[in-house]
Amino acid sequence: MRVLGIDCGTAVTGYGVVEQQGSELRCIAAGAIRLSSRKPLAERLAQVHRELAAAILQHRPDEVAIEDVFYAVNAKSALKLGHVRGVALLAAAEALLPVAEYAPLAVKSAVVGYGKAEKHQVQEMVMRLLRLAQRPEPADVADALAIAVCHLHTAGTRARQAKESAVPRG
User: pTM of the predicted model, to two decimals?
Assistant: First the structure.
């Protein structure tokens, strides 16, 4: 299974494509969509859409995983972040890809083992889990890869549970 993880942000939106074959995880691609605060919001949203659609076309993920909104400094920030998330969801929907959403605590727990882990801890664990030569930078890229890893772990657990519940007991 190949998953595109997306960490939406109003300044930087990170994305990462992770593939799982058996128990092995492999980073296929990762990047940061850097948004200029000098550009109008509509142009920034178009840029996010263009770049995510290109990543989907190039890397052909089976599913998309995105971080759920959890906190914003103020209503205006939350609204802008919601716009970016909407564009990311649109890019996935246009490609007919299923989307899973995860709370930040769930992502950190799945990757680091502690829901309140700090950014550098997430970067370090992502580097180790994906056997990368260096920490993913910026942190938004590491977060996107962590979201993809979280989804792969969660999907694997759900598949095993479904298989176990389908086995007749008696």
Answer: 0.91
Tokens 């700090």 label which residue? 118
Identify the residue with better confidence: 136 or 80.
136
Contact yes or no for 34/11 (Cβ under 8 A):
yes
Enumerate long-range contacts of 37-41, CB under 8 Å, 24 or more apart: 37/11, 41/80, 41/83
pLDDT digits (tens, 9 = 90+) for 4-48: 999 999 999 999 999 999 889 999 999 999 999 999 999 999 999
Structure tokens at 125: 């664990």
Distance from C-alpha of 50 to C-alpha of 39, rounded to nearest angstrom: 15
- Relative to beta strand 24-34, strand 12-21 is antiparallel
- The span from the CA of 24 to the CA of 2, in Å, is 12
> What is the C-alpha separation between 49 and 169, in angstroms, rounded?
49
Fold (CATH) for 2-166: Nucleotidyltransferase; domain 5 (3.30.420)
| pLDDT value of position 79 | 86
CB atoms inside a 10 Å sphere around CB 69: 14
Identify whether 61 is preceded by a cis peptide bond (ω within 30 of 0).
no
Active site residues: 7, 67, 140
Annotated domain spans of the chain: 2-166
